[in-house]
From TrEMBL:
Organism, scientific name: Halobacterium sp. NMX12-1
InterPro entries reported in the protein's UniProt record: PsdUridine_synth_cat_dom_sf, PsdUridine_synth_TruD, PsdUridine_synth_TruD_CS, PsdUridine_synth_TruD_insert, TruD_catalytic
Name the record gives this protein: Probable tRNA pseudouridine synthase D
Family: Belongs to the pseudouridine synthase TruD family.
E.C. numbers: 5.4.99.27
GO terms (BP aspect): tRNA pseudouridine synthesis
Gene3D superfamilies the UniProt entry points to: 1.10.1510.30, 3.30.70.3160, TruD, catalytic domain
Principal EC category: isomerase
Active site positions, chain numbering: D93 (nucleophile)
Length: 434
């Protein structure tokens, strides 16, 4: 198997599914080269519906070069409200043109401000805010600039068809941005939280300098690691590192390491533990690749989820309520279901309610958790950090369209899956170029 880039290996993506050389090239030369549009799955009432029954105003925003969290903060600041009153269904990257839903509590359409590089339309009203997962998926249109050999796309597609059991498939890794592209530490914070090591969690975020970040940032991180002088560190940390500066203010005022970690917005606190789950998941499916176990069909001991019957076209998704443990006498039957797109082999996003697989898949799951010194009970945590866990399909089968001149990829993915795990197979470059 072809080994992945060192930054990808650091977050559990050890291998490529395709052995062919890539096309090379760069993504996001301009925001319009990377377009993401949510496939919406959220019911709304008309905009003039009773505000008492439907206090949330739902918006569709098309954003250019806006990180989702940053836009939500800017919107809240303009409306002079808490950021907690702005919700969304999926986090999008800054270096793109993205179209997604937001919900804002207790405002009227005429209250909406004009924000640079943001087109905002009112969709309607809802009785609750948006939650992560309140979308079916995302449609992508991605242009690759300056590829070295665009003809290699055909060879990669053939490799992925072999991996996917007849149609192109890729491992459903959590992408680099889940962990931090230039400084992948989010999962390290989460692992420390799960172990009850709040000092380790705080220092994983404040310290851990990276050669890929600006020198003033890495210099400040080295200083705080060497001195633990929170007051002096505030003079060193650039203003753009606002989360770190908020943590330092808390520590300088006598707060605990846990207090410092809990200065993050609630959605980011949850993200730390989710990133730890994601890292364990990546490790599990990378180990499955290493052992040569199939992704498109089950082996004895696997846990399979059947497909949702009413999922939108192009974003087939597993249904958590329809689970099947694969015994020796059911392997062939379940393989046929998977081949027809009616079922998916899964691996766990570990939490308090997780039941691990049996057989060789179960061996892999237990071995990875043992290496990480984790067990399901560790996720029984107070506040924003607990998680019951779930399972996730290990294979993506994007319905790809590839155009030439310029090299362009169009495809849709179910919510929670990453375009970069498809594109990395084709480009085979540093994740910093994705």
């Amino acid at each position: 198997m072809r080994e992945a880039h060192e930054l990808e290996r650091a977050v559990g993506m050890w291998y490529y599914a395709s052995d062919s050389d890539g096309t090379g090239g760069r993504l996001r030369e301009s925001p319009s080269d990377f377009r993401v549009t949510e496939i919406e799955e959220f019911d709304t009432q008309p905009a003039d519906a009773d505000r008492g029954d439907y206090p949330w105003l739902v918006l569709r925003a098309t954003l250019t070069s806006w990180d989702t969290n940053d836009f939500a903060r800017e919107l809240a600041n303009r409306l002079e409200m808490s950021r907690e009153r702005v919700t969304w269904a999926g986090t999008k990257d800054r270096h793109a043109v993205t179209t997604q839903l937001f919900a804002v509590r207790d405002i009227e359409p005429e209250d909406l401000p004009d924000i640079s590089d943001a087109g905002i339309d009112v969709v309607g009203r809802a009785g609750r805010g948006l939650e992560f997962g309140d979308l079916a998926g995302n449609e992508f249109r991605v242009v690759v600039r300056d590829p070295d050999d665009p003809e290699q796309a055909e060879a990669v597609t053939a490799d992925l068809a072999a991996f996917g059991g007849g149609e192109p498939g890729v491992p459903n890794f959590f992408g680099q941005q889940r962990f931090g592209s230039k400084r992948p530490v989010t999962h390290e914070v989460g692992l420390a939280i799960l172990r009850g090591d709040w000092e380790g969690a705080a220092m994983a975020y404040l310290g851990a300098p990276s050669e890929h970040e600006p020198e003033d940032s890495s210099r400040a991180r080295r200083f705080v690691e060497d001195t633990r002088d929170w007051e002096a560190a505030l003079e060193k940390f650039p203003n753009r590192l606002r989360y770190e500066r908020t943590m330092l203010h808390e520590l300088a005022d006598g707060g605990s390491f846990r207090d410092a970690v809990e200065t993050f917005p609630s959605n980011l606190q949850r993200l730390f533990v989710h990133a730890a789950q994601s890292y364990a998941f990546n490790r599990m499916i990378a180990e499955r690749m290493e052992r040569g176990l199939p992704f498109h069909e089950p082996v004895e001991g696997d846990v399979v989820w059947f497909a949702e019957s009413d999922a939108p076209e192009g974003v087939a998704r597993p249904d958590s309520s329809r689970q099947q443990r694969v015994t020796a006498d059911r392997v062939d039957v379940m393989a046929r279901h998977c081949a027809r797109g009616r079922a998916f082999v899964t691996a766990p996003l570990v939490g308090t309610d997780t039941e691990l697989a049996e057989g060789e898949p179960g061996e892999i799951e237990r071995a990875v958790l043992g290496e990480l010194d984790l067990e399901p009970g560790d996720f029984d945590l107070p506040g924003e950090f607990d998680s019951a866990g779930t399972r996730r399909a290990i294979l993506l089968r994007p319905d790809l369209t590839v155009e030439r001149d310029p090299l362009t990829f169009e495809f849709a993915l179910p919510s929670g899956s990453y375009a970069t795990v498809v594109l990395r197979e084709y480009l085979k470059t540093s994740p910093l170029d994705l």
